[in-house]
Design brief:
Elements lengths: L28 H12 L2 H11 L4 H29 L3 H9 L5 H30 L8 H18 L1 H29 L4 H6 L9 H17 L2 H4 L5 H33 L7 H7 L4 H27 L6 H18 L6 H28 L1 H5 L8 H16 L6 H11 L1
Helix pairs in contact: 1-7, 1-11, 1-13, 2-9, 2-11, 3-9, 3-11, 3-15, 4-5, 4-15, 5-6, 5-13, 5-14, 5-15, 6-13, 6-14, 7-11, 7-13, 9-15, 11-12, 13-14, 15-17, 15-18, 17-18
Length: 420
C-alpha cells in the first residue's frame, strides 16, 4: 500500500517569503525581541516625539505617546501572534482575508509605503542628519551619505532575518544605553524642576490630544501591520505577543519620550541654539555618540522597512526576495539623493489611512471568522478577491478621514473595520 507523504515546502523566493517558516527554522524569543526592538527604536520616533513636544505641553505629550503606543500595540500584537501561528508574512496572511488578488491591496501598501516611500524618506533623513552633525567630512556629503547609509540598510535586508537578528543583537543594547544616558543627562543639566518642564507651554498653536495621537500613530503604524514579517520566525504566538508588547510599549514609546524630553530641556537651556533635535543633542554634549546611535537606529529600522516591502512585492510577483530588496532599495536611495522624498509624504499619509482598517480585517478574519466558521476552517481554496474585505477596508478608511470626532482617525479606522 502506498504511503502518503507531505510534499516538501519549496522556498523559491528565499527566506521563506512566500511559504510558512518551518518549525526547525524558528528563532528564539530573544532573537525575535532584538529584531522587534531594533525596528521600533528609530530616528523617526525620536524626531516625532520632539516634533510633538513643540506643539503641546510635555505632560500632554507623554499622554499622547502612551495612547499611540497602546493603539499600535493593539494592532501589532494580534497580527504578530497570527504570523507566529501560521509562519507567514502579513502579505501572505492577507490572502485568506482578501483573496489571492485582493491581498495585493496590503502587499502594494507594504511595498510602496515601507519598501520604497518610507525607506527613501528615512535614507534622506539619515543623510541630512549625518551632514548636519559633521558638515566638513567627505563621507557626510549628502548624496554620498545616501549611498553608503542606504547600502548598509539594503545589505541586511537582502541577507534576511538572520542578518537583521545579528545586527539588532549588537545595536539594541547600545542604543538603549545611549538614549537612557541622554535622557538622564538632559534631566541632570536642566535648571528647572521636572514639574515645571511638564507644564511648559510651547509657543504658537497648541495641538489637541486627538491630533497628537493621530500624528504619533502615523509614525510607525505601517510597521504594525507588518509585524508578522518578523514574528513568523517566532516559535509560539505568546513569544510574538510579548516581543510586540515590549517593542511598542517599550522601544517606540521610550524613544519618543526621550526625544520630547531632550528638546524641551535643551530649549530651556539654550533657547538661541537649539532649533531642532540634532542641535539639541550637540548642545547637551552628546557629541560622537550621536553619530554612532544615528547610524545604528536608522540601520536597524530601515532594513526592516525594506524587508517588509520586499515580502509584499514577492507575494505578488514571482522573484527572489533578495532581488526585490535590491530593486526597491535602489529606488528608495535614488529618491533620497534626488531630494524628492517629501513629495511622497502626502501620498504615503493617504496609504497610512488604510493601515489600521487592514489590521482590523486581518484580525477579524483570523481571530473571529476562522474560529467560529467550520466552512472557513475547511476551505482548501483561496478566493480571487474577497469583495467584502475590500469594501470594509475602504469604507473604514473613508470614515476615519471624513468623520470628525475627538477620537484619532487610526482608532476610528481600526474599530470600523472590525465592526464592518
Amino acid at each position: 500500500m502506498a504511503e502518503n507523504k507531505t510534499a516538501p515546502v519549496i522556498d523559491e523566493a528565499g527566506d521563506f517569503a512566500t511559504v510558512p517558516v518551518p518549525a526547525e527554522e524558528r528563532k528564539s524569543f530573544t532573537s525575535i525581541l532584538w529584531v522587534n526592538a531594533g525596528y521600533t527604536i528609530n530616528l523617526g520616533c525620536i524626531f516625532g516625539g520632539a516634533a510633538i513636544a513643540a506643539l503641546m505641553p510635555l505632560k500632554q505629550v507623554f499622554i499622547v505617546l502612551a495612547i499611540s503606543a497602546i493603539i499600535q500595540a493593539a494592532i501589532a500584537i494580534p497580527i504578530g501572534a497570527i504570523g507566529a501561528k501560521y509562519g507567514l508574512s502579513s502579505a501572505m496572511l492577507s490572502r485568506k482575508s482578501y483573496g489571492k488578488y485582493g491581498s495585493w491591496l496590503i502587499a502594494t501598501t507594504l511595498a510602496i509605503s515601507l519598501g520604497i516611500g518610507w525607506f527613501g524618506w528615512q535614507v534622506a533623513l539619515f543623510a541630512d542628519t549625518i551632514h548636519a552633525l559633521f558638515p566638513d567630512s567627505i563621507l557626510t556629503i549628502r548624496w554620498l551619505a545616501c549611498i553608503w547609509g542606504g547600502g548598509l540598510m539594503i545589505f541586511t535586508a537582502t541577507k534576511g532575518f538572520k542578518a537583521m537578528g545579528v545586527l539588532s543583537f549588537i545595536a539594541v543594547p547600545m542604543m538603549i544605553t545611549f538614549f537612557a544616558f541622554g535622557t538622564l543627562s538632559a534631566l541632570v543639566q536642566s535648571t528647572v524642576p521636572f514639574s515645571e518642564l511638564l507644564a511648559r507651554m510651547p509657543g504658537g498653536d497648541i495641538m489637541s490630544i486627538a491630533q497628537g495621537v493621530t500624528v504619533a500613530v502615523g509614525i510607525t503604524v505601517a510597521g504594525a501591520i507588518g509585524m508578522a514579517d518578523i514574528t513568523r520566525y517566532a516559535k509560539t504566538p505568546a513569544q510574538a505577543g510579548v516581543s510586540g508588547t515590549l517593542g511598542y510599549l517599550g522601544g517606540a514609546l521610550f524613544c519618543e519620550c526621550a526625544g520630547a524630553l531632550i528638546i524641551v530641556v535643551s530649549s530651556n537651556l539654550f533657547p538661541t541654539v537649539t532649533d531642532n533635535l540634532i542641535s539639541a543633542m550637540l548642545a547637551l554634549g552628546f557629541g560622537f555618540g550621536c553619530l554612532v546611535m544615528l547610524v545604528l537606529a536608522q540601520w536597524t529600522t530601515n532594513d526592516n522597512n525594506l524587508y517588509s516591502g520586499a515580502l509584499g512585492l514577492t507575494s505578488m510577483i514571482k522573484m527572489r526576495k533578495s532581488v526585490a530588496s535590491l530593486i526597491m532599495g535602489a529606488i528608495g536611495v535614488i529618491i533620497a539623493i534626488g531630494g524628492i522624498q517629501d513629495y511622497f509624504v502626502p501620498f504615503l499619509n493617504v496609504l497610512g489611512l488604510l493601515v489600521p482598517p487592514m489590521g482590523g480585517v486581518l484580525m477579524s478574519h483570523y481571530l473571529l471568522v476562522l474560529p467560529l466558521s467550520k466552512t472557513a476552517q475547511n476551505a482548501d481554496t483561496i478566493a480571487g478577491v474577497n469583495v467584502l474585505a475590500i469594501i470594509s477596508t475602504v469604507a473604514a478608511a473613508a470614515l476615519s478621514y471624513f468623520w470628525v470626532t475627538p477620537l484619532p482617525a487610526s482608532v476610528i479606522g481600526l474599530a470600523a473595520s472590525l465592526l464592518l
